[in-house]
Every structure is written in structure tokens, then in C-alpha cells.
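Explain my protein.
***
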Amino acid sequence: MLQNSLSSGTLKTSLTNKQYMGLALPIIISQITTPLLGAVDTAVVGQLPDPSYIGGVAVGSIIFNTLYWVLVFLRVSTSGFASQAQGANNQDEILFSLIRPIFIAIVIGGLFILFQEAIKGVAFWIITPSAGVIEQAALYYDIRIWGAPFTLISYTILGWLVGLSFLKLTVYLQIGMNVLNILLDVMFVTNFNMGVAGVAIASLISEITVALVGIFILIKLKLVNIPSIVLKNVFQKSVFIKMIKVNRDLFIRSICLLTVYTLFTSKGAQMGEVELAANAILFQIHFLMAYCLGGFGNASSVLVGRAIGANNSQLFSDTIKLSLKWGVLTGFLLSSLLYLCSSFIYPLFTSIDQILVSVNQYQGWLLLFPIVGFWGIILNGVFSGATEAAPIRNSFIISMIIFLVLINILIPTLGNHGLWISFTIFTLFRSLVLGSYLPKLSRRLF
């Protein structure tokens, strides 16, 4: 098994395509279920007759997608620290790499609930949707916000399992969550006519369930030995400070992403409900693509972490080469599939002709996303696995500044096309800037 061949850090031969994809594919399958929650919510409510319903769920989903993107460092850094600990065969640090981020997840999740009204107010102030959309989005938000601590706990559990290559467990957990969400969506909306509230309750139940089941599995399979945990070692100053610094830089990265996503949604909302709904549908597909490519990033994070923990330069070099190869192929494959299947995919999200016309009008920009963005997404995993987050932070700051300049130049003349052009260039610069740091990382590590 890949887990056994790499965990000890004794890989002597080159990393093969089969080994790499054996790690990447299960991660992709588990990763892609996260944005599917928002996509399923949007698709189910999109069958209702009023655009404000799909707009409300779209705005609500984007708020949560963005919040959780901001905190994706909990999963990403957990994978990096866990894989490095496994590469070094340090059993204590393997355990602590789970306990530390769970503590942070509980604190942040509690703060989300405590300040939920402020978060909602700021989000609506920035996005500025219509009154009808605000009503539905608020209903969705007020219900789903209570799942925040559970979602963040599940992030750390899944990140830890990925870092240790317990891939089947991650796939089962996330697919189970998504299947449960779909079934509850259909039951609450179609059978019980609960509308937007039913969609939100379905997501909430799914998020709580996956966290509780994840904790149960860790204890039942004895992956975590609670009595052996020594708190003073968990919060050892030097290690904890390093984790905080890595998470700080990844948090800044996420704030930049939050700014871009929020402004994107806000500018679209100012163009009308149809443009908002169309952009929301395209953005849900964007999230699916991003998480799919993120599966390669997470696989690279695990492999790079083990390479560093075991001081294995061959594994590091092979990981970079195979990540580039499969990233290019997957980027073009995703664009091609969307282009060929668009007439089937878009009606899954809505039956309103006016919105579908708008979606088709702007889909060309989405087709470019996986091609210009795959390398930045994968390198995000590479640097996270190396627990070197400063280059990630810098790449997002630079790309965000470029986006802010472009939207003010292009939107007044090109409208929604200008918005999508700005986002596409933002995505491209994420790849270019972070890629420029890669040679220095390789030289420094080995």
C-alpha cells in the first residue's frame, strides 16, 4: 500500500504514477463533496419558481463557502504537520498534530456563533443583494451557522486522516455527508415544502453528523488514545508557536481570498438578480473544479510533508513532477468536460430560462479557470506540506491587489465580463507568483 511504502520515509525508487494517483484520487473524491453541499442546495432550490430563492441560497452558500475557505488552513496545515510527523516516525507529534488544531477549531467555531449577527450584517452590507434575496439568505444563514464548530472540527479530522493516508475513511465520511445532505434536501424541500429553511436544515444536520461520526471513528478504531494525551506537551511553546505562524500566514491568504470572493459576489449582486444567480451557479461549478484540483494539492502536501520528515529529496522531486503532469491533464480535462456537458449541467441548477441564458453568456471565463489556476492550487498544497506558508501569503496579497485594480478599471466598461476577466487574471497570478518561489524552496529544503 502507498501508506506503508511512504510513511517510513524509505522510498528508494521513483514515485510512480500509480502511487501518486492512488493517493490523489481518493482525496479528490473526498474533497469534491465539500462544495457539493452548496451546489446541491443551489440545485434543489433552483427548481422553485422565484429567482430570490436561488439567489438567497446562493448568497448564503457563498458566505459559508467563503468562511470555510478562510479556515481551510485547519485542514491544510493539519495534513502538513501530520505527514511530517509520520515521515519522521514521531508518534507523539502525530497525535498532537490532531489535538492542537481541534482546539483552535472549537474556539473559532464558537466565535462564529457568538458573533453571527455581526458576520451576517457585514456580509450583506458588502454583497448588497435585493430585499427578497436578503430575506431568503438570512433564513438560510441563521440556521446553518450553528454547524460552524462541527464543520471546523471535521476539517481537522479529515486533514489529519489525509495526512496519515487513511484515505478510505476520508472518502466514506465525506461521501456519507453528501449523500445524507442530498436525501434530506429532497425530503425537506420536495416532500415537506420547507423551501430555503429545509435546505439549510439539511446542511446543518449533515455537518453535525460527519463531525460526530468522525470523532466516534477515531475513538472506536483507537486512532486516538485520549488517556495518553499530556496537555503540557500538546501546548509545547516552540511547536505551538510554529503552528500558529503557519496558520497565521494561511489565514492571511484566506482573508485575501475572502476579499476577492466577497467583492465578486457583491459586484454581481449590484448588476441584478439574474446576474447574481448566474454568477452564483458558475461559482458553484468553480468551487467543484477548485476542490477537484485541490485534491492534487492535498496529495502533494502529504507527499512533500513525508519527504521533509524523512529527508527524502527524491520523493520531493518526483512529487513536483507528477503534480505538474497530472495538474495539466486534469485542468484541460475539466474545461473540456464543462464545455461538452454544459447543456446538461446548467439546467441541474435552475429551470429559469433567463438565468440559463446569462450563465451561457459568461461560461467562457469559467472554462479558463482550471487551465490558469491548477498550478497555483497544487503549489498551495506543496508549500503547505512543507509548512512554508509565507510564499502562499505573499502570492495572494499580490494577486488580490491586481484584482482590486482591475475591477475598478474593467467593470465600468465591460460589466460582468470585466468582473470575470479580473477574477481570471487573479487566478493566473496566484499560479505565477507562487511558482516563482518553488526553486528557492527546493534549494533550502534539500
